[in-house]
Predict the structure.
Amino acid sequence: MKPVERLSRQRLRSAAVVLPFVGAFLLLPPFLPLFTARVQVLGVPLIVVYIFGVWAALIVLAWALARRIGVESDPPA
């Protein structure tokens, strides 16, 4: 593996480690009150849209990171 590929893979793994912490940070109380207004998006309260939006974004980002990192080559059997 080339040094550039190794560095890139290490950065992707670091991003994968940081992703859950970013998700937890976005769901902490300092952010949630910003979305508690009595506003509805297509009949759904804004807070619900925000929480499920963050959740969906975390899933998509984790999936994308996993695809970019790729599966390590399996040892021969």
User: Anything to note?
Assistant: The beta strands are 40-41, 44-45. The radius of gyration is 18 Å. The mean pLDDT is 85. The helical segments are 3-26, 46-69.
